[in-house]
Amino acid sequence: MKLLRSILCRYTILVLFGLFAVNAGASTPWQVWPAVGDARLTWGPWVIYDSELRSPDGKYQGAGDNLALVIRYHRNIDSEDLIEATDDQWRHLGISSSKRTRWINRLEQIWPDVRKGDRLIFVLDDNQGAFFQDNRQIGVLQDFEMSQSFLQIWLSPNTAYPEIRNQLIGKR
Description:
By secondary structure, the protein is of the alpha+beta class.
């Protein structure tokens, strides 16, 4: 019995060491990244969504960072309306019509309709973008420029919502 306990103890230690070694090089999931800042978008008396920007160290350094933008909706919104609003914002930022058309076609393949309480999350991690609905991945963007341009809707100095930008990047 003592021998069996000793073998099990050693086996457990080896398994735990193996798990640690496998996970030591893995990137930290966005769900545990600290918040940089948060903001609320309203339209008249209605709250449209709450947003939060996260990064691995809780700081915003600028374009190219690993970032997660978490948006929790307070209203039901069809995917077509989300896509139209995204296109409007990209137009505002001066993105060419040909790029917008290509990018909108990609978003049409990914985005669902959202319901009150849903979260859509965009994560830029190691130069790849991914969309999540709550904690379930729903699409990946291989186009780094598209990923950056999506985040720039909120983070560009030329955003249509400078107050929201300042709140998200921690400048209240």
